[in-house]
Amino acid sequence: MDFDEILAKNPADPLSQLVRQDLDRLSLDELAARIAVLESEITRSRQQIERASKHRAIADDLFRR
Predict the structure, then answer these.
(1) Residue 31: how many CA atoms within 13 Å on its side-chain side?
(2) pTM of the predicted protein model
(3) Residue 35: is it exposed, middle or buried by C-beta count within 10 angstroms (0-12/13-18/19+)?
(4) Into how many domains does the chain fold?
(5) Is residue 9 part of a domain?
């Protein structure tokens, strides 16, 4: 599934709205702040993936016994 398919499923989704925003209207400072927030969100998402992966591995191990 590509990114356009994901966005097309729910155009009201905040992520869909985010990627469609016009960046031309933002100042350099606003763009830098946007990047900082997005990088923070990427870190938070990666941490959640790691937690979920560990949880899944523990559950898989438990049910294999």
Answers:
(1) 7
(2) 0.71
(3) exposed
(4) 1
(5) no
Q: Is 34 exposed, middle or buried (0-12, 13-18, 19+ CB in 10 A)?
A: middle
Q: Please measure the distance between the N-terminal and C-terminal CA atoms of the chain and give it in whole angstroms.
A: 34
Instruction: Note down the domain range covering 37.
Output: 24-65
**Cβ contact 13:3 at 8 Å:** no
Q: How many residues does the chain have?
A: 65
Domain assignment present for 28: yes
Provide φ and ψ at 26, rounded to 5°.
Answer: -90, 145
**Residues 36 and 44 sit within 8 Å (Cβ to Cβ):** no
pLDDT tens digits for 1-46?
576 776 667 778 888 889 889 999 999 999 999 999 999 999 999 9
Distance CA 51, CA 65 (A): 22
